[in-house]
Specification:
52% helix; cell membrane; single chain; two-component regulatory system; Beta-Lactamase; Helix Hairpins; 5-stranded antiparallel beta sheet; Heat Shock Protein 90; transmembrane helix; 5-stranded mixed beta sheet; alpha+beta
């Protein structure tokens, strides 16, 4: 199972289970809570009615007195009320009055007159001076529909102490069942929204965490493949700390391997010039004709220049390769960039009898490092000049291709042999110059290749129709 899925399931289960149990508690508490509120209302109403019925009960005219008449008129009223989306068109109260012995003397429904209610919990406890209430089936034998009864003592209005009867106020629980069901449904709906919102937050949190972990994973995979990549963007958390630690470790490991590789490369390339210098120096220790002495002295000087060029270009290439990404990036106009490169090789071109021609459309620009692109163009121009015959033209141009700018350096020299086309970008690989037969350090095109990579592009070298070669450096816009 993927780490992101584990994180999401863990967070969702924790929040979901907590929300479920909280919802269950609320749903289970709605019914008793509403019924307790109804009971409190019945208590108030029963005591008010008991006070109003006291005079008629003491006078013995409870069945035909003012209280009964008023109550009958009230029960015939239509409240025309809308209580929280539910219409209420009648009164649900049932009033029962018993005398001091518990015998029913009045029933608003006319059913229980003359019956003994002294054993019913509401009447029984009230006759004893306690709070009396009970819940009984609305229909005998049906426990699903119940009625709540709350009793209040009827006190003699003359002395204010003597108990002369009990008034029981009843209301069927079905009258509040719609409110209970609606409340429970609202809690469940809101709970479902809460769980859904928790799931969404879990997805977002997991995605945020996995975005950082994924970047770190892709970075580690690229490093393991030996690809030069920038470190993950900085973060102020443990993932950011891990990314910085990995980048530090990569730099240390690559630095060690890089030094070993370059020491081996430099040692290999220095053997041949040093051997030539050593041989020429030994011969110069012997008496030689002047012409031979000059020849061997020039050989030493040429090998020294080759060593110096190799070391300089190795240092430049090492600096570029050590950067997995551009350290400096700016918007550069292509026209001045190409013109500066042409001017940098103008004296060498004049000495070789070659003309450098610059052609680029106005307004063309590229995003990159001015110094690196300039050095890359210088390397390509120097190669073109070295292989161009006297009187020829080296064309330096630029064009937009898709989302990239392509810098072309084209010459009319001898071109590149087929066997060398696949190897020209290898480090230390070079071809003999037509004019002198000497080889360069073989690092120039490797340098150009690294510059192209840093600019999100590539470099190619191909032969031209009609003779010569063209090098193309692609850089992103």
């Amino acid at each position: 199972m993927r780490l992101g899925l584990k994180l999401f399931l863990g967070l969702f289960l924790i929040v979901g289970i907590a929300a479920f149990f909280v919802m269950r508690v609320f749903v289970n508490e709605v019914k008793p809570g509403v019924r307790q509120a109804m009971e409190a209302t019945l208590v108030d109403a029963a005591n008010v009615l008991a006070e109003m019925a006291a005079a008629d009960l003491k006078a013995g005219q409870i069945a035909r007195g003012r209280f009964v008449q008023d109550l009958a008129r009230a029960q015939r009223r239509d409240p025309k009320a809308m209580v929280w989306r539910f219409p209420k068109r009648s009164l649900d109260y049932r009033v029962t009055i018993t005398d001091a012995r518990g015998i029913v003397v009045y029933d608003s429904m006319g059913q229980d007159i003359g019956r003994d209610h002294s054993r019913w919990n509401d009447v029984y406890r009230t006759l004893r001076g306690e709070y009396g209430a009970r819940s009984s089936p609305e229909t005998p034998g049906d426990t699903t529909r119940t009625v709540m009864h709350v009793a209040a003592p009827i006190i003699d209005p003359d002395d204010g102490r003597t108990l002369i009867g009990v008034l029981s106020l009843a209301q069927p629980n079905r009258s509040i069942d719609p409110f209970i069901a609606a409340s429970q449904r609202a809690i469940i709906e809101r709970g479902a929204w809460l769980i859904g919102l928790s799931a969404l937050i879990g997805v977002l949190m997991t995605a945020w965490l996995m975005h950082g972990v994924g970047r770190l994973n892709r970075y580690a995979q690229a490093v393991s493949r030996g690809e030069p990549v920038p470190p993950p963007p900085p973060r102020r958390d443990e993932i950011g700390d891990l990314g910085r630690a990995l980048e530090t470790m990569r730099r240390k490991l690559e630095g060690k391997a890089y030094v070993e590789q370059y020491v081996q490369s430099l040692t290999h390339e220095m053997k041949s010039p040093l051997a030539a210098i050593r041989g020429a120096a030994e011969l110069l220790q012997e008496p030689l004709p002047e012409a031979d002495r000059v020849h061997f002295a020039r050989s030493i000087q040429g090998q020294e220049q080759r060593l110096t060029e190799t070391i300089d270009k190795l240092l430049a290439l090492a600096e570029v390769e050590q950067h997995g990404w551009l350290q400096k990036r700016e918007r550069l106009a292509v026209q001045p960039l190409l013109q500066a490169a042409a001017e940098a090789v103008a004296m060498r071109a004049q000495a070789a009898g070659v003309t450098v021609h610059v052609q680029v459309a106005d307004g063309l620009s590229v995003l990159g490092d001015r110094w690196l692109l300039g050095q890359a163009l210088n390397n390509l121009l120097e190669n073109a000049l070295a292989f161009s015959p006297e009187g020829s033209i080296v064309e330096l141009s630029a064009a937009r291709v898709g989302d990239a700018v392509v810098l072309h350096v084209a010459d009319r020299g001898s071109g590149v042999p087929d066997y060398a086309l696949a190897r020209v970008f290898e480090r230390f690989y070079s071809l003999a110059r037509p004019a002198t037969g000497q080889r360069s350090s073989g690092l120039g095109l490797s340098f150009v290749q690294e510059v192209a990579r840093l600019h999100g592009g590539r470099v190619t070298l191909a032969n031209r129709e009609g003779g010569g070669a063209v090098a193309s450096l692609y850089a992103s816009l």
